[in-house]
Automatic annotation (TrEMBL):
Span of domain MoaB/Mog: 4-171
Similarity section: Belongs to the CinA family.
Gene that encodes it: cinA
The protein, known as: Putative competence-damage inducible protein
Pfam annotation, one family: CinA_KH
Gene3D superfamilies, alphabetized: 3.30.70.2860, CinA-like, MoaB/Mog-like domain
Regions that span the bilayer: none
InterPro entries: CinA, CinA-like_C, CinA_C, CinA_KH, Competence-induced_CinA, MoaB/Mog-like_dom_sf, MoaB/Mog_dom
Length: 425
């Protein structure tokens, strides 16, 4: 089945809002085994939107539209989609009651234009919105389908996962078995080209398929199988996932969909009852923020410092003045002293330091923009590593934090691989 994504909103065209919905839906649709060849962004204009919908329906089996389901006059998605198929809109009492309840429970006044959101194209399937007022809409005609979803991500994502994904999974496909099962192998510390060079034989498989997706500092390999039932689909996926784990070893940090790299690190700390502290310069607390995003991290995270100036590095982490004068703030020596000094100060089992030049200014021929040094202290042993990142300031900092999480995880694993007292890795 071929799916096409249409994102509606002039604010998207102007760049006022980043189109995260398209990225989310593209990944989810791929996981369901749907082929996506086109994505379009169109403004709040009925004529242009209608033309975009007609083009999409000519070349795709399923069209998913996001945005434009609100109560205002420029919210035209539902009206335009209904018009393309010559459907009339009618008030849906169920949706109207849910909207009225939404406002009443929050003590808000419901204006007359909010009733517009309860208008539904004739013959459509209504999808309840448990996080907002605009319901989702599923329309079908002669083997083609349109799905209309609200624009706010906190409404779109749960609606898709709870209602739309099961609907799509249950659709009959005359060309293939009806059950699709996917497993994602998440790899850190390796580039996409290196990963792909090691799976060319697996990418040639027809069922299951193996598809790589590059992330910042990571590569995800999605293994997807079709079968008559879920048990058979899982059976097809299992040996491929096992083979990928064998090929990439400890670089695989999870095969669970909801586990991020930072969660994998926090879980490793929790499993081994290790405490952690961070000390950052050019990343300005971004590493600490990634760790603190994970529920339960309070059991292991002690403190995080931002030592942007040399004075702060000396005062907080005890970096020697002689080290800074001789080697500079951006040096392996400083990174090592930052990590060890933070360990002495906080009594943490694991400490991590980052110091570097994020740019756009400040680089030299000897120390260019993108040069980062990181230090990781684990139970008395300190490792220091040099990195060279490219891109703008934001990209360098983001990439550095992903590399830091990978390095912290690797250092902990290496520490316990040399021990024999049975700690969990």
């Amino acid at each position: 089945m071929v799916v096409e994504l249409i994102s509606v909103g002039t604010e998207l065209l102007l760049g006022n809002i980043v189109n995260t919905n398209a990225a989310y839906l593209a990944e989810k649709c791929a996981g369901l085994g749907l082929s996506c060849y086109y994505q379009t962004v169109v403004g709040d204009n009925s004529g242009r939107l209608a033309g975009t919908i007609r083009t999409a329906l000519e070349r795709s089996d399923l069209v998913i539209l996001t945005g434009g389901l609100g109560p205002t006059q420029d919210d035209l998605t539902k009206e335009t989609a209904a018009g393309v198929w010559n459907r009339q809109l009618a008030m849906d009492p169920h949706s109207l009651e849910r909207i009225e309840t939404y406002f009443r429970e929050r003590g808000l006044e419901m204006t007359e234009n909010n009733k517009k959101q309860a208008l539904v194209p004739e013959g459509a399937i209504v999808v309840d919105n448990d996080n907002g007022t605009a319901p989702g809409i599923i329309m079908e005609k002669e083997g083609k389908r349109m799905i209309l979803l609200p624009g706010p991500p906190n409404e779109l994502k749960p609606m898709f996962e709870n209602s739309i994904a099961p609907f799509l999974t249950g659709l009959e496909n005359p060309d293939a078995p009806g059950i699709i099962f996917s497993k994602t192998v998440k790899i850190c510390g390796m580039g996409e080209s290196k990963v792909e060079s090691q799976i060319t034989d697996l990418e040639a498989l027809a069922n299951p398929t193996v598809a790589p997706y590059a992330k910042t500092g990571e590569v995800h390999l999605r293994v997807t199988a079709r079968a008559e039932d879920e048990k058979e689909a899982k059976k097809l996926v299992k040996p491929v996932v096992k083979e990928l784990k064998s090929r990439f070893g400890s670089a695989v940090y999870t095969t669970e969909e909801d586990v991020t790299l930072e969660k994998a690190v926090v879980d490793l700390l929790l499993a081994n009852e290790l405490t952690v502290s961070t000390i950052e310069s050019c990343t300005g607390g971004m590493l600490a923020a990634r760790l603190i995003n994970i529920p339960g991290v309070s059991e292991v995270f002690k403190t995080g410092y931002i030592t942007y100036s040399n004075k702060a590095k000396r005062k907080i982490a005890g970096v020697k003045k002689g080290t800074l004068d001789k080697f500079g703030a951006v040096s392996p020596q400083t990174a090592k002293e930052m990590a060890r000094g933070t360990a002495l100060l906080t009594k943490a089992d694991v400490t991590f330091s980052i110091t570097g030049i994020a740019g756009p200014d400040g680089g030299t021929a000897e120390k260019p923009v993108g040069l980062i040094y990181m230090g990781c202290y684990v139970c008395g042993t300190t490792h220091v590593k040099e990195f060279h990142f490219s891109g703008n300031r934001a990209k360098i900092r983001e990439t550095a934090v992903s590399a830091a999480l990978t390095m912290m995880r690797q250092c902990i694993l290496e520490y316990y691989s040399q021990k024999t007292f049975g700690k969990k890795v």
